[in-house]
Amino acid sequence: METVLHCTTDERADRLFKAEQFLLAAETIATIIDDLAMGDAYVTLCVHAGVAAADVICCSKLGVCYEGRDHNGAIASLAKLDHTTALSLSTLLHIKTRSPEDALLTIKSDQQRAGRAAAFLVRAARLA
To answer: Residue 75's domain spans which residues?
Structure first.
């Protein structure tokens, strides 16, 4: 179950800072480690970056953000604002459900999709 939270300008700025940190950490992993075993860490950082960026967008455009496990409220709200943004968050969350918690390592194409989706969301959050 998700909770809708009203957010302040300071909270929005904090979430943007975190989104950028997570994305930078993911990009650092991608540039220094060419190892499929690190793919789960990379994807996890991309997911965190994307979720934080989605919070920024929702805070900026709607004055609220969502707290919970599935992020369906955020996806639905983003879909009303911009289909591509909602699709990017949905993509990240779909990849997340198949990575660290599972015994299988993420595949390279999922890592690439996660990186693109996270970068898109962080760019959108910077403009929000």
So the answer is: 3-127
